[in-house]
Structures are given as structure tokens and as C-alpha cells.
Amino acid sequence: MSADVILVPGLWMPRAAMALIGARLARAGFRARVFGYRGRTPLDANVERLTRFVREHCDGRAAHFVGHSLGGVLVYDTLARCPELASGHVVLLGAPVRGCHAGRRLAARSLGRWLLGACAGRWHEHEARWPRREPLGVIAGTLPLGLGRLLGALPGDNDGVVCVAETEVDGMVDQALVREAHSMLTVSSRVAALIAQFLRSGHFA
Question: Of all helices (H) and strands (E), which one includes residue 79?
Fold first, then answer.
């Protein structure tokens, strides 16, 4: 039987944004299910919705998780808060679990606060520590091309929206840096191959 993989897109992105990753994972033998949500709604509400989605669609089976950007933050927060939720391997793509420099800059403007909605508070600096036994892998982009750069230079290596340092989680099993911009992480064939490898083995190598 194919293993279930729950795919969660980023802020402002439709479910279709994860279609290419889903198709590539299907060819690798996984069964992908995409969770859609409204990023401007409170994160706690989306944690509850994702939890219900997993229970309804996976029937108690442990599913793998892949989340991009805010979707990765949502995956991380859901699994950290719900230790009873069955999980397989977990991959976060350009997910600013430690907070987001570009997001804080955007939230300083009235239009930015409206665009971010109730998720704005999640972009403050946070500690990030993986509390589960299931392996967590982190993929971060290092091609600094993205909307975040329009608000000013970003510190350190970044993908144009999220800094590499903002994606790092204490307790992660493995990390892969790829020469991709933030929005391209979900369409990169190399990223899809890395995800498939991690879901199979718990490592990118």
C-alpha cells in the first residue's frame, strides 16, 4: 500500500501550488493529499483544521508531512502541539519556524498587516526544537530572489523571502541547502527528489 503524504502549501498559495510535488511523489510510490487553508486566519484554527484533516483522511495511519513556507510552520506547530497525532517522516521547505525577518518588515506596514492577517504574530522570533521521535528534515533555498528582498536586504543566506537560519530546528535529523528561490522550492525536481529520499530513509543523502 502506498504511504500517505500530507502536503501543505504556503501563505496565499492555493492547493494547486503543491500539485507538481504531489505528482512527483506519486511517481515515487507515495499517495499525496493536499491540505488547503486560509493563511490569514488564526494559526490555532488552522492547527485544529489540519489535525481533523489528518484524522479523517488517514484513519489512524501514520502519514508523512511536507510543508512549504507558512505551510511548514503549520505542520511543525501541529505536530509539536499534538504528540498523539500519528506521523511518519516530516520535511519542511523554506519554513521560517524561528520567525521571519521579511514578515516582520511587512507587518510594520498597514497593507502588510492586512495581507498577513492573523498569522502576523507568528513571524516574531521563536525558538524551534523538534519534540518528536519521527525524523524531521529541513530544506532551505539559497538563491536570494523573492518579494522579501523588496523590503530590504535579508541577513545571511536566504531564498529571497526566508533566511536559512530561520528554517533551522534543534533536533532536525538532516538539512539540505539548494540553490533555489523561495517560490521555486515547490517546483524544483531536485527538491522533489530530496523529499522522496527523506520520506523513504529519514535522510537526504
Answer: helix 70-81
